[in-house]
Amino acid sequence: MSPDWPLRTVDPALERRWFEHGWWTDETLGELLDRGLTEAGGAAFTVRSAQRPAGTTFAEVRNRAAELAGGLRARGVGAGDVVGFQLPNWVEAAEVFYATALVGAVVMPIVHFYGTKEVGYILTRTPPKAFVTFDAFGSLRGTDTLLTCGAPLPEAVAVVGDDPAGFEPLDAWYDEPLAAPAPADPACPALVAYTSGTTADPKGVIHTHRTIGCEVRQLAALQPAAAPPAIVGAPVGHAIGMLAALLIPVVQGKPIHLVDVWDPGAVLRQMATERLTAGTGATVFLTSLLDHPDFDPDVHLPLMRHIGLGGAPVPAAVAERARALGISIVRMYGSTEHPSTTGSTHDEPFDKRAGTDGRPLAGCELRLDADGEILSRGPDCCMGYTDPALTEAAFDDGGWYHTGDIGVLDADGYLTITDRKKDVIIRGGENISAAEIEEVLIRMDGVLECAVVAAPDERLGEHACAFVRGTAPSLDDVRAAMAAAGLAKQKWPEEIRTLDAFPRTASGKIQKFVLRAQLREERR
Predict the structure, then answer these.
(1) By the 8 A CB rule, do 230 and 277 touch?
(2) pLDDT digits (tens, 9 = 90+) for 332-350
(3) 8 A C-beta contact, residue 350 and residue 324
(4) Which of 16, 64, 114, 415 has the fewest Cβ atoms surrounding its Cβ within 10 A?
(5) Distance (Å, rounded) from C-alpha 234 to C-alpha 245?
(6) Does the domain made of 424-522 have the CATH classification 3.30.300.30?
(7) Which CATH superfamily hosts domain 357-422?
C-alpha cells in the first residue's frame, strides 16, 4: 500500500513562475535518470572497494537497473510504493536507486552506518514495500541491524553479500528488464530522505519528482564544466553523497567514481593516476587530503583548482589555507529540506565566495525574520515531511521554510550563518541530533543535567561536546552508553565538560547559544 502523505501546497503564481523558468518540469526522476544513463552510456562507473570493487559503464548500470526494476515490479512494487535501502557506496546502491526510480516508486536511502535506533525508527515510521541491505561491511552488520531494530520486516528483503541471513540475495531480484520508465505523477513523491533534526527522532523529508529534478539540474549547472570527474566518499544514503555520486554526474554525463572507505592516501594515488579531483563536500574531505604526507602540490593541486564546500561549517583558516595553495573555494548553504539555498560561483570575490555562504540560487528566495532566523522557499524545496505535524511547524502559509538557522545578510545580499536555533551538530556533513545524545547522557549515574552542543572542529567542521552538571562520566563510559543505546559511532560526544550552573533564559531554558559561543571563542 502506498503511503498517503499530505503534501504542502504551493501558491499558483509561484508554480507558474517555476514552470516558466524551467525550474519545474513534468519529467519524472526515472525519465531524467534513464535519459542521462542512456545518452552517456559509455561513461565509466567505478567503485574502489576492498570488498566489492566494480568497474562498469552507465549503460551496463542502466541495464542492470532495468532488470532490477523488472524484479521489483514482479514483487508488486509500483508507483508510490516505498523501496528502502541501506548500503555502502557500492554499485548495487546505484542499481537499487535507479531501479526504484524506473519503476515509479519512492526511493528511501538510509545511511549505511546508522544503527538499530535510527533504522528501527525509520522503518517503523515509513515501512517500505521492499528493502535492500548488506551482510557485512567492516564492523557493521546490516542484516543484524534489520533483525534487531524492532521494526516489522518489510514484505520483501534482499541482501548484498555472501551471507543473506535467510533473506533472498539481491541477485535473485534481477528479472525481465523494464523497457521504459514507468509512468508516475511528477507532482507526487519520488524520494524520502531521513535526516536528524531538532528532536531525538529522524525526520522524513519528502521530495517530489519536480523538486529533486530541479535540485539536480540546478547543482549540475553550477559546477565548472572543465573540472575533472570527482571521487566521492560521502555516503550515498546521505543527501550530499546521493546528489554528488548518483544524480549530478548522470545529468552531466560525467563518469562516477565512488569509494566505500575514505582513505586519503588511496584517494591521492587515484587522483594522480587517473587525473581525478576530490575534496568537495564537507570540510573534512578537503583537509584530510591536504594534511596527508602523500599530498604533492605539483601533482594534486592542478586537479583541485575548484572546490565547493558545504554540509558543515567552513573554518576561516581552511578557506585561507586553500587560497594560499591556489584552490578556489566556494561555500554553499542548504539542508535536506532545501538542499541548495545559497551559494557562489568561482568568479566572485574571495571574501564573498569563501567568507559568506553565498546568495540565493536561481529560483530561491530568502528573508530573515525579526530574530534573524533564515526563511527560504524555492522550486527545489521539499514538499513536506512524512509527519504532517512537522510540515505544519516548519512551513508557514506563504510557503516559507523556517530553517532554524540564524544568519545575517550583507549589503550585497550575501548570507552568513552565525548560529542555529536547531539543536543539531553537523559533523563531517552528517546531522547529529543533540537531543538524541542527551537522552542517553541524562540516564547515566551522576548526571544531574546535560546539554550537548556543536564544538568547532578544524577537520570535521563540528563535533558533539557534552556539558554536564553533576558528576561527569568518563568519555569511555559515555561511549559504552552510546553503543548500548544503538547510536551510530559518529554521534558519540568527543568532549565532556562539567559546569556548576548552566546559562539560562528568564524562563529557565538552557542558553545553548552561549555554550556554542564559548567554544568558538576558545578556538579563535
Answers:
(1) yes
(2) 999 999 999 999 999 999 9
(3) no
(4) 16
(5) 8
(6) yes
(7) Luciferase; Domain 3 (2.30.38.10)
